[in-house]
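ok so I'm stuck.
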Amino acid sequence: MGVTVLHVRLHLITVDPLLLGECVSYSESEVRPAVESQPGSLGMSLLTGAAPGGALLETFWASYAAMKATEKTAESLRGEMARRGRGTAAVECYEVPVFEREGALHGGEAARLTRMEVKRPTVDDVTEAFGDTAVPLLTETTGFDSALLFADPASGHLISETVWRDPQARTASPSVAAVIRADVLDAGDCVIRAVDDYRMVFSSARKA
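replied:
not stuck anymore, here's the structure
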């Protein structure tokens, strides 16, 4: 019997910067309770600040089936958030093979998302290196709060998400590429596509 893997749905929202505050309030008062009341929900996170008017809403699920069952609800909530912000919304879905969190997040933390592309056959190797090598080293650095890895094995697209106590700790921290063995990255032909910094507005995400 296979192991059930956590899943995450990423809602990439771009809105009028002047309306971002209204969208944040809507996500806290309306989206959050709607998501967290769904069967299989493992909470959600809201991040802002990668670009003016940019927001990233993450909803976590105990299984692919649980995530799939909420597709229509997610589409409606995402569309309403974009409408209120006079902007656009896109969605991406991933497995979550690595989820390490030191404690509860209270809002205001500094997050960094690193988008990577690797050869599809090496996704498991890079995932293992992230969990076994990168995470232990990151947890030893000052101000560390959490490290997650999102993976799409079918495309070779990976996203690492690290969260730090404040922007100063994030700036002083090593990059993900710096703490994964070079031979693993070379074997996977790993390419860093983007590195974006965010502010954590809130997070109730959990492993179970």
